[in-house]
Amino acid sequence: MTLTLGQPDARGVPTVLTPRLVLRGWRADDVPVYLEIVAADGMADHTPQPSTEAGAWSQTAFQIGHWALRGYGMWAVEDRASGQLLGRAGLYEALGWPGCEVAWTIRRDRWGQGLATEAGAAAVEFAFDVVGKDDLISIMTAGNVGSIRVAGKLGLRRDRSEVLQGAEYDIYAIDRKTWEAARG
């Protein structure tokens, strides 16, 4: 995929267009919809999710702040055709995190359509081509079969296990050289 960047929003967050998605900066009106997405059955099985509107608000504010502090972060993922908020995807690297993580959360009723892979591929390309990262990771539980499959499609391979925030996770990784070789 060749990254298509749109105009940045008022906070400087670039918009990324993929064939089916718009990756854009977060807005206040995303909060209740995002809470509905992450509150669906099974969404918190592998990644802690907010369970209240205040929690969703805090997570949204964190995402906005991450962009301001790092110059990259998680986008709100929107369906290009309908404008429906589908979840989030992008880059995450909080203090003390084991590396720059590419991550995704897509609403459950849209799983199996390749949307996480599409959003994740755009985030990986953005990380290597725009941000200039040399390595990326993705962190997940061993039972998160869907996300493990997405990571594999993006070229990430299991690298190690690590305890983070009191739980054991598998770390998948890809470096720039491997990504560029696969890209052709």
List the uncertain runs: none
**End-to-end CA span:** 11 Å
Helix content percent band: 25-40%
Strand order of the largest sheet: 1-2-3-4-5-6
Overall SS class? alpha+beta
| General shape | globular
The CATH architecture name reads: 3-Layer(aba) Sandwich
CATH topology: Aminopeptidase
How many β-strand stretches? 9
Q: Strand count, sense and closure of the main sheet? A: 6 strands, antiparallel
**What is the domain total for the residues?**
1
- Give me the strand/helix succession: EEEHHEEEHEHEEH
GO molecular function, one term: acyltransferase activity, transferring groups other than amino-acyl groups
Keywords: Transferase
Domain N-acetyltransferase: 20-157
Protein name: Acetyltransferase
Describe what this molecule looks like in 3D.
The chain has 184 residues and is of the alpha+beta class. The chain has one domain: 3-Layer(aba) Sandwich (Aminopeptidase). It is 33% helix and 28% strand. The protein contains five helices and nine strands, in the order βββααβββαβαββα. It has helices at 30-38, 53-70, 115-131, 145-153, 176-183; strands spanning 4-5, 16-17, 21-24, 74-79, 85-92, 101-106, 135-140, 157-164, 167-175. Strands 1-2-3-4-5-6 form a six-stranded antiparallel β-sheet, with helices on both faces. Strands 7-9-8 form a three-stranded antiparallel β-sheet. α1 (30-38) packs across α2. It starts with a strand and ends with a helix. The mean pLDDT is 91. InterPro entries: Acyl_CoA_acyltransferase, GNAT_dom, N-acetyltransferase. It holds the Pfam family Acetyltransf_3.
